[in-house]
Specification:
The structure holds two protein chains of two kinds.
Chain A lengths: L2 H4 L2 E4 L2 H5 L2 H13 L4 E3 L11 H5 L1 H13 L6 E3 L2 H16 L1 H12 L10 E3 H5 L2 H9 L9 E4 L9 H4 L9 H7 L4 E2 L16 H17 L4 E4 L2 H18 L7 E3 H8 L24
Helix pairs in contact in A: 3-14, 5-6, 5-7, 6-7, 12-13
Chain B lengths: L2 E2 L2 E2 H6 L2 H5 L7 H4 L2 H5 L5 H10 L20 H5 L6 H15 L4 H13 L7 H9 L11 H7 L3
Helix pairs in contact in B: 8-10
Classes of the chains: A alpha/beta, B mainly alpha.
């Protein structure tokens, strides 16, 4: 057992899991627990804050709130279930270490709370899973293979970008999801616009929906049976957004969405009900092994 | 002195936008695979940076500005050969828009929610009950009031 494996991570759940998607959090915790990775909770963690909307109000406030989250408990590594949180905290960490002006301002602000600036490593949970040894362990734990299930992997944007701060996988053509779904026997299909954004972070409805429509059509044309991703915002866009789009356009996609951790839990023996799959808007009916 | 909205060029320099945009030589690589440019009629990152550079970007911080269409996907950040950090420029413009009261309503709402409650969005009773039922730890951040202190909004 390597030293790395025994070390505990502080678990950073993020807002969407807290407020709307507890079932996703359950599946991420389960996968990490099964791999023997100890997690610590810290009730003081607040919104990362989000790199899209909150940062649009004030970059310096965004940075100081991120600095507070980073500095709460020394150098112990942080793991998130959300690429937005991982990217936001990593980018803040990058700025705080590279830019003296930003560092001085943020340090003074969190100093009011009696905190000294700390810059612990931050990663998304996929960074822990996408590792040769851990992938062998996952494969060995598979009890129910999802052979032949045609999956459209969707990476989104913040999982690997900005690469100067995030430093995980290939920034524009990542492959971690493709390799992880292959462990359970599923087939990751090729589809057009695979690396395109989900559209959700655009504050313009038309842009956001236009992108979603393009993604869903491309997945469907390539014969996908389900979507796999690892971002709560992409999840909402593809699950809730798909339902709304179907209602609006009358077109039917019927593509159920799985968080990568849910797919792994299912394959490792978890049941749909304990994973809260009934909370998804697009039901996974008819997919063998998911009942 | 150039102005963008009510901000002087020095103010934009402070948030990094103008200084960064000045590096731009309008090659257009930021437009190529930009999702917002592809799926809307009036979002063009190259034009935005050019306007900021030339100090003629007043309309970019007005109401219903195309700057809010950006999906923050960072594709331009990865590809820009001039080191412009295009997203920083967009964020700088959005910060100005927020200060001038022309940003979309959602921005102030999310900001208030984060500073007052520690989370973006609503922690409903249903959400708390579901967490408990699923065996998850309580979700309410313990000391959200600290956030007002460090953002000057106590």
């Amino acid at each position: 057992m390597s030293e790395n494996r025994a070390s505990a991570y502080r678990f950073f759940p993020g807002c969407l899991a807290r407020t709307k998607l507890p079932h996703i959090e359950v599946s991420v915790r389960r996968v990490l627990e099964r791999l023997g990775i100890g997690l610590e909770d810290d009730a003081r963690f607040t919104c990362c804050p989000d790199p899209v909307v909150f940062r649009s109000s004030s970059r310096s406030d965004w940075l100081s709130l991120a600095a507070r989250n980073l500095s709460l408990d020394g150098e112990k590594p942080i793991v998130t279930l959300c690429p937005g949180c991982a990217s936001s905290l990593s980018e803040a960490r990058h700025l705080l270490s590279e830019d003296p002006g930003s560092r001085t301002d943020a340090a003074a602000r969190i100093g009011k709370l009696g905190l000294d600036l700390n810059l612990p490593p931050v990663s998304h949970f996929l960074e822990i899973l996408f590792d040769e040894e851990r992938m062998k362990e996952i494969a060995a734990g598979v009890k129910r293979r999802l052979d032949g299930l045609r999956i459209a992997c969707h990476y989104g944007c913040h999982l690997t970008r900005p690469s100067d701060a995030v430093d995980f996988d290939d920034p524009e053509k990542p492959r971690c999801l493709d390799e992880l779904v292959a462990l359970v026997g599923a087939e990751s299909i090729t589809y057009e616009d695979k690396y395109l954004c989900c559209g959700r972070p655009s504050l313009d409805e038309e842009t956001s929906t236009g992108i979603l429509e393009r993604k869903l059509s491309a997945m469907k044309e390539a014969g996908a049976q389900a979507i796999v991703l690892a971002c709560p915002f992409c999840f909402e866009q593809f699950d809730v957004g798909q339902t709304l789009l179907e209602r609006k356009t009358g077109r039917k996609y019927g593509l159920p969405v799985f968080y990568l951790s849910q797919l792994l839990c299912l394959a490792m023996g978890g049941t749909a009900s304990e994973l809260g799959l009934d909370m998804h808007k697009v039901k996974a009916e008819g997919i063998e092994g998911v009942e | 002195m150039h102005t963008v909205g009510s901000a002087t060029s020095e103010e934009i320099d402070i948030i990094g936008g103008r200084e960064l945009a000045r590096l731009c030589y309008s090659c257009g690589i930021c437009v190529g695979d930009c999702p917002a440019a592809r799926f809307s009629d009036d979002f063009n990152p190259r034009q935005i940076f050019l306007r900021v550079c030339l100090g003629i970007g007043r309309e970019l911080v007005g109401r219903d500005s195309p700057i809010w269409k950006c999906t923050t996907c960072y594709t331009c950040h990865e590809r820009c050969p001039a080191g412009v950090k295009p997203l920083e420029v967009i964020i700088a413009l959005r910060n100005l828009s927020f200060r001038e009261g022309t940003s979309p309503e959602g921005v102030a709402n999310i900001r208030r929610s984060v500073i007052e409650k520690g989370v973006a969005g609503a922690l409903t009773r249903r959400a708390l009950e579901l967490r408990e039922k699923m065996g998850l730890p309580a979700a309410e951040p313990g000391d959200a009031k600290e956030l007002g202190l460090i953002t000057g909004h106590e």
